[in-house]
Amino acid sequence: MDKHRIRIQMKTRKALLDDVEKAVAARNAFELLERTAAFMLSERILLYHSLPDELSTHEFIERWADRKHFYLPRVNGVNLDVLPYERSRMHLGAFNIEEPDGDVLNDLSGIDMVIVPAVAYDRRGNRVGRGKGYYDRLLSGLKALTVGMAYDFQLVDEIDAEPHDVRVNYIITDRHIIACGNRR
Prior knowledge:
The chain is an alpha/beta fold. The chain has helices at residues 3-15, 19-34, 37-41, 58-64, 134-139; strands at 44-46, 69-76, 79-84, 90-92, 98-100, 113-116, 120-122, 127-128, 145-149, 155-156, 170-172, 177-179.
């Protein structure tokens, strides 16, 4: 399916969610993630600080921040820098996303898991992002396990992938865990 049409369709569908539905879906999805061996074994996790229309990461971050080493992206031109998460060192950055302050993590080889946002996924791990390519550029250089987090309705039959698109290894929704079969 065409990425532009998917973006419009998902924006419309997300607008129908109320705050309770959003909170329940986020709790369910992140509880599924927390039960996986991959999460239990991961010490260093790169994830996103969610926007209002994304599956919320805020409660999850607060619940695990004292037990896991979290890293968040910060927009730097056309790329994403990766910085350690510290609640007291956040500011409103590009696209009205809270971003971390501090020193950039230059060696990303120690990242165990990346929790990836998207507008939509297909079951092969293809994703539709917001169209700027930030995550494709970031993920192309990483060997970490990648997990796409999404509402269940964000799963579509097929996404017209492009050569530069980077697939995720797993997708976790508020109802399912899907192994996409992609190995790094």
